[in-house]
Amino acid sequence: MASLVKKRIGGKSYYYARECKRVDGKPKIVWQKYLGKADDIVRRMSEDASADPPQPREAFITEFGAVAALYGLADRLQITAAIDRHVPQSGDGPSVGTYLLLAILNRCVAPCSKAAVAEWFEATALRRWLDVEARQLTSQRFWDNMDRVSRACIPRIEEEITARMVREFDIDLRRILFDGTNFFTFIDTFNERATLPQRGKSKEGRTSLRIVGVGLMAAADFGVPLFHRTYPGNQPDSTTFASVLPELVARYRALHQGVEHLTLVFDKGNNSAENLQNLEATPYHFVGSLVPTQHADLLKIPRRRFRSLEDDGLPGVTAYRTRKEVYGARRTIIVTHNDNLFVAQTRTLLREIGKRQTRLQELQRSLHAWRQRRDRRGNPPTVAGTQKKVAAWMKARHMKELFHFDIREQNGRTALTYRFDHAAWQRLQRTLLGKTLLFTDNDEWSDAEIVQAYRSQHHVESAFRCVKDPHHLSIRPQFHWTDQKIEVHVLCCVLAYMLCALLRRELHHKGIDRSIRAILDDLSGIREVGVIFPPHRARRGHEPTPVIKTTLSALSDDQRTLYNALDLERRRGT
Questions:
Q1: Among the three residues 94, 114, 147, which one is the final residue of a domain in this structure?
Q2: Same-domain status, 126 and 102
Q3: pTM
Q4: 420 part of a folded domain
């Protein structure tokens, strides 16, 4: 609390403005300013009252809301200290942990190249909290500091930060999710220094580019990441799962903290007899899904034998429970039918059916026109060429079983006939659409518990969507072309997602449920505005200094709610 203090010096009274606070239980002066003698104070007040208010000289605007919230979470996790413990500083200047923290925060709010980080940093409130100068944030400095992070210490850094997160935020570890995806890069085909970027099946359809795979283990508790692995982009999911299983067990032992029943949830792409057998030897229980077309007997079970899970909080979902031997062991099987999924899949297939009907009709007309032509100029369509074209259209899922076509030569010209198989369409609707096949070793769980556990897989899928968002958290653009740099870059992106997932989780516990993107968009709009006024008259022997007054930009109702919920006011004076 501020107070006015009088001091007697040489028989004269002098006044000071002072603010005291208790530090470690003891009163301490944290701020003090000399005001002068009583006559000086009265004169200045009289002059200030009669004079026109000073006109501001200039103003500056810095990003405050998002970086303040995320920096506070990074401080709680002690990210900088954890990195510096494993990567000792070399020389003067900011530590490796400081450089990587800046890269992490930049990924959260405004992903850009390392060459552009200095400009971004100067326009944020981070320059008040970090002992860094913009001139130190060159791309070469980032490159040098990233180069000090060995591939071997990346998992140790992640493990230390993750362990602290679990303790600090009391993360629920009963359900653990694992999945993999890949990211396209623009790394040159002839760059042989990198083995992680490979040609493979891009999940974003960029087949002409080299891709890098990323596997992620996350808690069902808001999808906070617990472990990641970067791997060659052409590696199948099941192979990745097998290779990381020993590390998942090691991470389990480091994190479980007395949780006796941990369930690992994974998608059908990770299935194999070897993987399931190896999983048996781990502390994990599991919930997974089966490829429906490989279990025709389960798909034929009539809907009348399914029971509704509406009373268990799953409206529109029905389930049939049985046991069956899969991957060499007898497991509990849950066959579910979801009305919403049925409608979505039906609409998608009808759209694809309509596209192919249109193409086939146009091709029929084109071939018929060729047969009617009297002149022989140009090359006529061939049977082989037409078959190749139609086969490409039929590669989409279920199209081959729904369309039957015949391409043959008639009177020296190619002809096409086709029909749509309505019986196959009805059979598809009756047996497959809307259904999911789940299997588990949690035999004592109810149908609803198994379904809800598998549904939590959406958290890790959401994480992958977030790190592909070009506006926040994006792994791209990534301008690194060696394996070590790619792995450090992915580590920064995963830690950035960790901060954002924790931010969303913290707001949820305060009654605010919003997406990560919506939260970051609103927080990024909270700006700090500094207004610079001309200097007051300086005391004798002192240089005049400008007066700077700061305030916040006008806040919307949503921004004000976030600002208060996160107590960002405490960061204003720091």
A1: 147
A2: yes
A3: 0.81
A4: yes
Structure tokens of 301?
Answer: 């079970």
Whether residues 440 and 330 fall in one domain: yes
pLDDT digits (tens, 9 = 90+) for 356-405: 999 999 999 988 888 777 556 667 888 899 999 999 999 988 999 999 98
Please indicate, yes or no, whether residues 476 and 436 belong to a single structural domain of this protein.
no
Least confident of 159-163, 243-247, 316-320, 353-357: 243-247
Nearest one of 501, 561, 484 to 216, comparing CA atoms: 501
Residue of 522, 537, 395 lying closest to 65 (CA atoms): 522
363 lies in the same domain as 247: no
Looking at the fold, whether 334 and 411 belong to one and the same domain comes out as yes
For residue 335, which phi and psi values (nearest 5 degrees)?
-100, 120
Spatial distance between the Cα atoms of 544 and 474, rounded to a whole number of angstroms = 46
Q: Is the Cβ–Cβ distance between 229 and 215 less than 8 Å? A: yes
> Could you tell me the CA-to-CA distances from 311 to 214, 278, 413 in Å, in that order?
38, 36, 63
185 in Cβ contact with 232 (< 8 Å): no
- 5: closest CA among 41, 28, 46, 33? 33
What is the C-alpha to C-alpha distance for residues 311 and 319, in angstroms, rounded to an integer?
Answer: 12
Pull the structure tokens for residue 56.
């501001």
| Mean pLDDT score, 456-478 | 78
Per-residue pLDDT averaged across 55-65, rounded? 81
Instruction: Give CB contacts under 8 A, 24+ apart, made by 395-401.
Output: 396/352, 396/356, 398/349, 398/428, 399/352, 399/353, 399/356, 401/428
Enclosing domain of residue 214: 154-293+452-509
CA distance 143 to 116: 13
* Cβ atoms < 10 Å from Cβ of 187: 22
End-to-end CA distance of the chain: 17
* Domain shared by 413 and 313, yes or no: yes
The SS3 assignment for 247 reads helix
CATH of the domain at 255: 3.30.420.10
Cβ 522 vs Cβ 556: under 8 Å: yes
